[in-house]
């Protein structure tokens, strides 16, 4: 269980998060949507302890701690001087790369885990390429593999399909669903790609101007969201898209 208790965060005079309170249940996929600048990425960074809050707390239940949290940054944030293999291995060795300097037993463990996750994301043959030699979609798969290699209990994904073409976006979302099905971490996804996010989310949270403007299922969104939330969702869908019904359209 992940509890987010009245989180506030500001930058100068701008208050970005205004008392956000949420509880995320085990084994669920939660989508976090809302306009740019509404605090979504900052909230993920606060949960991952890469950014501090001005007030409020983040609590992990069931023996889970910050070491069990993985954050996939927006745009991937790969180390360009490291190979795909060493980028993915980074969380396992706490930055002690290249891994050929590790003790034999640890090196074999790392090799096994990295090899397994690279195979799952279809990048085995790219293991020793540099990020600059990869397409945008492949780079995003490397970032996903790095976030998942340690099998975190809480997986935070910041706009994992941003800037990708529709085919690559679909591949990334399908991988997220497949890997979630495998071991079911609490998964919290920020995305503007609503056509692909909403159908896979157990729960949808809309963050507008630092406040939770909606919290519910896709059915709740169709039937009971405010006009501003439904308008936001509607303008990001093409009419007739089978993954959401026209009742959402304002």
Write structural notes for this entry.
The chain is built from 8 helices and 9 strands. It has a 6-stranded mixed β-sheet with strand order 5-6-7-3-8-9, with helices on both faces. Helix 2 crosses helix 3, helix 2 (84-93) runs parallel beside helix 4 (136-148) and helix 4 runs parallel beside helix 5 (166-183). With 250 residues, it is α/β, with parallel strands linked by helices. The chain has one domain (2-248): Rossmann fold (3-Layer(aba) Sandwich), CATH 3.40.50. The chain is globular and about 55 Å long.
Summarize it.
This protein is an alpha/beta fold. The chain has helices at residues 40-47, 84-93, 104-120, 136-148, 166-183, 194-197, 218-224, 227-234; strands at 2-11, 14-24, 29-33, 55-60, 69-72, 154-158, 186-190, 203-208, 211-216.
Summary tags:
250 residues; three-stranded antiparallel sheet; alpha/beta; 8 helices; 23% strand; disordered C terminus; six-stranded mixed sheet; single chain; Rossmann fold
């Amino acid at each position: 269980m992940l509890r987010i208790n009245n989180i506030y965060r500001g930058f100068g005079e701008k208050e970005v998060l205004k008392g956000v309170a949420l509880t995320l249940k085990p084994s669920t996929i939660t989508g976090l949507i809302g306009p740019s600048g509404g605090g979504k990425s900052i909230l993920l960074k606060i949960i991952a302890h890469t950014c501090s809050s001005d007030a409020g707390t983040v609590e992990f239940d069931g023996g889970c701690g910050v070491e069990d949290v993985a954050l996939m940054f927006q745009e991937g944030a790969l180390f360009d001087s490291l190979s795909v293999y060493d980028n993915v291995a980074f969380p396992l060795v706490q930055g002690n790369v290249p891994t050929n300097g590790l003790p034999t037993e640890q090196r074999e463990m790392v090799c096994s885990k990295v090899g397994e996750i690279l195979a799952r994301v279809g990048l085995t043959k790219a293991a020793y390429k540099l990020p600059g030699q990869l397409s945008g979609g492949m780079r995003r798969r490397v970032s996903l593999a790095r976030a998942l290699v340690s099998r975190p209990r809480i997986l935070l994904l910041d706009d994992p399909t941003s800037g990708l073409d529709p085919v690559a976006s679909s591949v990334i979302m399908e991988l997220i669903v497949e890997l979630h099905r495998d071991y079911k971490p609490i998964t919290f996804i920020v995305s503007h790609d609503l056509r692909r996010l909403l159908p896979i989310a157990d729960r949808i949270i809309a963050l507008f101007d630092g406040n939770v403007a909606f919290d519910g299922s896709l059915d709740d969104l169709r039937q009971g969201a405010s006009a501003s939330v439904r308008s936001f969702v509607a303008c990001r869908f093409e009419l007739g898209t089978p993954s959401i019904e026209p009742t959402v359209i304002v």
